[in-house]
Design a protein that fits this description.
6% helix, 3 domains, single chain, 34% strand, mainly beta, Complement Module, domain 1, 3-stranded antiparallel sheet, 219 residues, 24 strands
Length: 219
């Protein structure tokens, strides 16, 4: 043993622990790490200079060196296996979000990886929400939140003013749209879009539709 053989509690912390070194430079059993395993069967004693390797299970991240070495009767610091995160359908449903790029009921990611979310149809980002790019931190995942958005109604008078109409395929369907929905319009006969992009569509955003406009076409 090197150092004092006793420790004392001072101001809420213990004084420095003593260290035990194996006689003749030998090391005892290797440290056990949580969620990880040695790639060799452990023994009670190892000679100076022995190197052992650890491995983490799938979806865990090994932090630190995967190897430990018996040096002067002590093992070097072992690695840590960081637990994965699971983005579940239940947790996403409680926060009114869904995976942005992946479909499925559950997604597993390793610690340190980033998951990107988006609001479900009919919902808006909550101003007090955490970021929609959430990072898995040692098994913990902070979900963003969305709040219900107001529906939109397409008004005939607004379409008349802007010289647009719903496509024939949409006229028989409902004129109620949920927040986040895109509504396709078309210019009336002899009219063309004012927008340089040529697109004649609008997004329902919390009860508001910014209608596209078409102008009289003389050509």
């Amino acid at each position: 043993m090197t150092g004092a053989s006793t420790v004392a509690c001072q101001n809420g912390t213990w004084t420095e622990l003593p260290k035990c070194k194996g006689k003749g430079g030998k090391c005892g059993p290797p440290p056990v790490i949580e969620n990880g395993d040695l790639l060799s069967f452990p023994m009670q004693e190892y000679p100076q200079g022995t190197t052992l390797e650890y491995k983490c299970p799938s979806l865990y991240v090994l932090e630190g060196s995967q190897y430990i070495t018996c040096t002067d009767g002590q093992w070097t610091s072992p690695p840590v296996c960081l637990v994965a995160c699971a983005a579940s359908e239940e947790d996403m449903g409680r926060n009114n979000v869904e995976l942005k790029w992946v479909t499925g009921r559950k997604l597993y990611v390793r610690s340190g990886d980033v998951i990107e979310f988006q609001c479900k149809r009919g919902y808006l980002e909550d101003p007090a929400s955490s970021p929609f790019r959430a990072q898995c931190m040692e098994g913990m995942l902070e979900y963003p939140r969305c709040k219900p958005g107001r529906n939109c109604t397409v008004h005939q008078s607004a379409m008349e003013r802007n010289n647009i109409q719903l496509p024939s395929s949409s006229r028989s369907s409902t004129s109620i749209y949920r927040s986040g929905d895109y509504i396709s319009f078309e210019c009336k006969w002899w009219y063309r879009p004012v927008s340089h992009s040529g697109k004649v569509r609008a997004e329902c955003l919390d009860g508001v539709i910014n209608y596209p406009t078409c102008e009289w076409y003389f050509g």
